[in-house]
Amino acid sequence: MNLTADEQYILAGKEGRATRKAMQILVALGTIYGAERMLPVSSVQVAGVSYDNLGEAGLQWLDEMAAGGGRAQVLTTLNPAGMDVENWQALGISPDFAERQQRIIQAFARMGIVTTCTCTPYLSGNLPHFGQHIAWAESSAVCYANSVLGARTNREGGPSALAAALTGCTPAYGYHLDENRLPDLAVEVQVQLTDTHHFGALGKAVGEALQAAGKKLPYIQGIEHTSLENLKSLCASLATFGGAAMFHMQGITPEAGLFEPPAEKIVVTPADLQAAIQSLNDATSEEVDFVSLGCPHLSIQEIARIAQLLEGKKVSKEFWITTARPTKQIADLMGYTQIIETSGARIAADTCCVVAPIRGRFRAMATDSAKACYYAYSKNRFKTVFKPFDEVVATALITNKTNEANRTNKI
Ligand code: F3S
What we know:
Blueprint (H helix, E strand, L loop, with lengths): L4 H7 L5 H16 L5 E3 L2 E4 L4 H17 L7 E4 L16 H16 L3 E4 L17 E3 L1 H11 L5 E2 L1 H10 L1 E3 L13 E5 L6 H18 L4 E4 L6 H15 L5 E2 L15 E4 L1 H10 L10 E4 L6 H11 L7 E6 L1 H10 L1 H7 L3 E4 L14 E4 L2 H9 L4 E4 L2 H9 L3 H10 L1
Parallel strand pairs: 2-3, 2-5, 3-4, 5-6, 8-9, 8-11, 9-10, 12-13, 12-15, 13-14, 15-16
Antiparallel strand pairs: 1-7
């Protein structure tokens, strides 16, 4: 790679051992992918924050990078942690896990990273604009940044994102370059999509079609209106089931107008959508003992809707509503948190049902998120009920006969 004098200076260790390590990671990555140079980045999102994923080795590495003088050069935020950092006891997290998780967050803080733990950083002040080069980890946020915002990022891993934060640059390859942002499969949607669960199911159907066709960047047609919430659900699902880092949506996303739809085309019919929904349902509402909304992290509008649905009612199941801490603070301000917590549900900031250490704690989870269904089974071995948002809230209100029986036996 052709490095500038500043980059060579860093590589020679003149700015400390952590920054040198970071530049070594980026040069290795750039060499593998044939990058000719580095690009300055304006924003970073680091993943690999939960102690449940990182373990001792990850914690030690972060401590070493902080001790080695690593400091973020650009705005950098964090992916969800393994717990609500203020209210972890209420989620049943052990003190031992909490102590290790806090040490991870402190290591990031020592590096000057904003410790907002969320997978929707674009809702909490880390909002790049069209055409900016960024280095984001977290596949759903990467897909949102490339597709909806028109920023440019590869799917970074935890170490490469941290390396970009500490140096302020990333190798120029992949989605940073115009030629890799061309669509390669047209997708005509012939079904009416009305909610986040429909868009999650669409992401699964399209993602699996991409994998089968050996394609990676769909050009979606046939959707006239949508919302931020639907798009973040689609992004999470498309990235999970199709490995996609980007899509274009005719009339909706900013780069779609630059291209003609590709000649190769698939169609998504009502039957395809139904099949995707069906495939994510392997439990009944009666079996559900855990309800979770907030994958990706909820917007304030979604929390307002939950508060409206729960006002004056009591939930009968463990119900986590996961979001970024700044969004929770708005919910506090608006009185939504009080309504929700009076019902017995919990707003869990900073974390989610996938990265928290809850394997084995529940049998079956209800959610509106296709991505959460995928990881509920693959990581935690939970069965899943996949439903529209409002119906998920209603599931938390259904009295589960088995739970009732257990409760009675205990009494
Ligand atoms: Fe976010 Fe956790 Fe889902 S990180 S996208 S809420 S799996």
